[in-house]
Amino acid sequence: MNRPDGSTPGVLGGFSDLVVVVLATAALLLGGSVLTGPPRIVLGFVFVFFLPGYALTAALYPAVEQDRQSTFTQRLRTAPTATEWLVYAVGLSIVVTPLAVLVVNFLPVPIVESTALGAVSAVTVAGALVAIVRRARVPPDRRTFVPYGRVTERLGADLQGTPPVAAVVVACCLVAAGVAGATLATQPPGERYTEFYLLTEADEQPGTFVADDYPSELGPDGQVRLHVGLTNQEHETVTYTVVVEANSVVRRNESTAVAVATGNEVDRFQTTVPHNETWRREHVVSPEVRSENVRLTYLLYRGEPPENPTMDNAYRSVHIWLDTTE
Amino acid sequence: MSNRQFDLLTAGLALAGGFAVLALSVILFQTPPADGFEFSVYRGYPLYFWVIAIGGLLCGQAVIVRHALGDESTSPSWRPGFVVIATVQALLFLLPYFRGYVSYDRADVLTHVGFIKNIQQMGLIPPTDIYPNIHLLTLTLSYATGVEPLRIINTVSVVIPVFSLVAWYALVARLFDRRPALLTLPFAAVLIGGSAYTNPSPYAMSTQLVPFVLYLFVRMLQTRTLASKFALALTVVSVVIYHPLTTLFLIVGLVIYGGVHVVRRAGLLAGTTAEEHGLTGTKVTTQLAFGVLVGWYFQFTPILNKTGQVVRRLLTRSEGQSQFESYTATVSETSPALVDIVVVALADYGITAVFLVLGGLYVLKLLADVWRGRGDELRTFEIAFAVAFVFFSMLSVLFLLFDLVVGWGRVLTFVRFFGVLLVGLLFHQLYQRAGARGIVTGLLVISLASVAAFGTTDLYHSPMKATASHQVTESDVDGATWVLDHRDRYTPHVDQGIELYRFGDMYYGTNKSEPRQRVQPQTPLPPRRFGYANNSTLGASYEEEHYLVVTERGREFYPEMYPTYRNSWRFYPSDYERLERDGNVLRLYDNGPFDFYLVRAAA
């Protein structure tokens, strides 16, 4: 951070940046639960990836160099340039943030949101306080500060230059960043699907549904009990139709099944389910077809099913195999 | 071409770069997110998107190079070029979010989310979490933003790589004078980290901190201030806990620097400059890094076991298959066409090859200078970088030929890092000495274009690199969690297109609090053709009931990855159709891309 010779810090005696750091830290720590959405996300990134490192850098470097040097002749320069400040701020944040929370691990308190954010805030505020103290001891003409006036001057000079290539390029990048941000913020969901499944009720734990102990034959009452369920992840309310079929295998020879017969519908039912909701019901079925290999198939359709429901034209399908011979 | 014409050309390139960035953002805005799993993010956008991205990088590089070859008054400044490069790359790093992925890099990253979950559940770092820094960073970010760790973790692999670009700039500005710095920057700032940029796991992210560590180290040597020493010490301690291998490689780099310094002071390769003081700073940094490394990691039994494993494998050549053996086995099994081998090699290792060639040229030039008695013109840093480059190049060959627990790709990262620090010096000296400026410029342009192109193809896993995308989909997550919630934990499972245990880590945490949460890791694939070549039912392949998980990534793997190698496919589309007619296979869950079956053992 450089200053023109003879200029004065200005705002808050050259401590305005540290005040902002402390206020931003407090804003997230105290008001984080109130803030939501993009503002919280942006503040959160700044809190983790910038503020702690900035405060530490300010504590380490309270004074500026007396003379300006160009970017590439700065080897003996002790105080960081503006770009080096940015590198320090982000780099030390990446370094220090996990270390601060690691310290909490060794204290008799759990790592939870309050303690993790508190630890990082403590580092930030401590760094800012040390920076204030160290900076106050530096003569005003050598004190580090944010040169708001100089930044404005340089921007103005760039804009007045002919051609203002740098300004146009930076403007393009800023607009691109804005478009990208808007894209991410307004992006529609990509995946839309429905989960469809069969479960049984655990004998040992009634009310618990498991993917196990599926019936392989009819029960003593000639019935089969299953629980059919679906979860709507379509991002809209959908009316579903479930068609239940019991079809036997068509065999070419004793061992090879070439196809399963279709069209033997045993039941159908409808339900309307909002997005992100689950629907489940017990289904008791008594298939009439008698065969060693009967496929009890549940076909799911969005809206009304076609005239000839099959696995090929179903939206989703699940099935079990039964021996329905006596 | 006159200076005025050059300035106009440079201005045109800068503006072209700016408009390229704008065009990319518009394409991203107009392109809807992925509606499911996609084998390659490169197919998610039209070809011209990638051409514009590479073109934008090239324009930025050209602006910087133009400034390097001109003087300080050259207009426009080189800075717009750097801004274009950084912005293009930031957009590329954000692609998983633009595509709507749940997360990217599905293996290790899901397990790391599991570690984070354990910290949330237990309120402390579990004993098995040996390098927790990335977990603590991501968890803190999750708390600060209010976004769950699974959804926020990939932003870490945007922020840290972009920071890494700026750190490279700070490093080269400290190390070199104007011209070699500006000849190094277009290489250092463009995608040399490869797929590590998009992998938010400890090793990958810790390597992105290497330029920052080197920058602090150089700064410390040059300024000798307490502030720079403190910053370096803090960073070294943190990097140790980010990952041990990165620390080990950094220690090697420091030892090499110290060794070169000692050799020079002993009168060999004579010559020091005013900035090269004693070795105290180097010694202390090395001791600190080594001390923290040993103190932190050797309390963990897995580290001791792995260290022993590496030593045994080096000495006895027993166990495991090296990467070289794995490559040759694949080639001999599948007999791929030469063009396919070349495409995969370039996509995966093209950028490394560029730095191996250019770095190797610089090393040869340096040896020639030393032979001719011009070693005193060389700075200690330059010699140290060259030695480190050669060392890591040789080490990578060792990791390629022996199974040393970690792949050679991890060593190649450091080959590129030290190689890039030699490239600018190479071109600077070629421009100073060579009469054929045109040839040097041609070589420079080809090198920059290669880095931009190969860096872009290396960024994401894709069939170009003979791997499927590492995208995690919503249907994967929902399907896997349904299975984990409802399965019988005593029934074994086989997976295709998914590693269920990784989702188990993500869902339950890596430390399982109940036996039912344990998921069998690394299960075998289902039998080839589901056993249908020899049996009428999949059930004949098992002696007990098995669960079978098949995802779209599994079903489409062979047609998408190896369309012209049908004879080598393990499964055909007809095999999946036959599952639906198999009297021992119950289909219990279907969400479209994710299917879950129960296979009854045939009597």
Descriptive account of the structure:
The complex is a heterodimer of chains A (326) and B (603). Chain A is α+β, with helices and mostly antiparallel strands. In chain A, 38% of the residues lie in helices and 22% in strands. In chain A, the strands form 2 sheets. In chain A, strands 4, 5, 6, 8 and 9 form a 5-stranded antiparallel beta sheet that branches. In chain A, helix 1 runs antiparallel to helix 3 (51-60) and helix 3 packs across helix 4. Chain A is elongated and about 100 Å long. Chain A starts with 15 loop residues before the first helix and ends with a strand. The model of chain B has no long low-confidence stretch (mean pLDDT 90). Chain B is globular and about 80 Å long. Chain B starts with a helix and ends with a strand. Chain B is built from 24 helices and 6 strands. Classes of the chains: A alpha+beta (326), B mainly alpha (603).
Short synopsis of the structure:
The complex is a heterodimer of chains A (326) and B (603). Chain A is α+β, with helices and mostly antiparallel strands and 326 residues long. Chain A is built from seven helices and nine strands; from the N terminus they run αααααααβββββββββ.
Structural class of chain B: mainly alpha
Given the structure, what is the number of helices of chain B? 24
Secondary-structure-derived class of chain A: alpha+beta
The chain pair forming the largest interface, with residue counts per chain, is:
A-B, 102 and 117 residues
Detail the topology: elements first, then pairings.
The complex is a heterodimer of chains A (326) and B (603).
Chain A: H1 16-31, H2 37-49, H3 51-60, H4 82-105, H5 113-137, H6 148-160, H7 165-186, E1 193-201, E2 209-210, E3 224-233, E4 238-251, E5 257-260, E6 265-273, E7 278-285, E8 294-302, E9 316-322
Antiparallel strand pairs in A: 1-2, 1-3, 3-7, 4-5, 4-6, 4-8, 8-9
Helix pairs in contact in A: 1-3, 1-5, 3-4, 3-5, 4-5
Chain B: H1 3-30, H2 47-69, H3 79-93, H4 95-98, E1 103-104, H5 108-122, H6 133-145, H7 149-175, H8 178-188, H9 202-207, H10 210-223, H11 226-242, H12 244-265, H13 280-297, H14 301-316, H15 323-334, H16 338-371, H17 380-401, H18 409-433, H19 437-458, E2 471-472, H20 474-486, E3 493-496, H21 500-508, E4 546-551, H22 552-555, H23 557-561, H24 573-579, E5 585-590, E6 594-599
Parallel strand pairs in B: 3-4
Antiparallel strand pairs in B: 1-2, 4-6, 5-6
Helix pairs in contact in B: 1-2, 1-3, 2-3, 2-8, 2-19, 3-7, 5-6, 5-21, 6-7, 7-8, 7-10, 8-18, 10-11, 11-13, 12-13, 12-17, 16-17, 16-18, 16-19, 17-18, 20-21
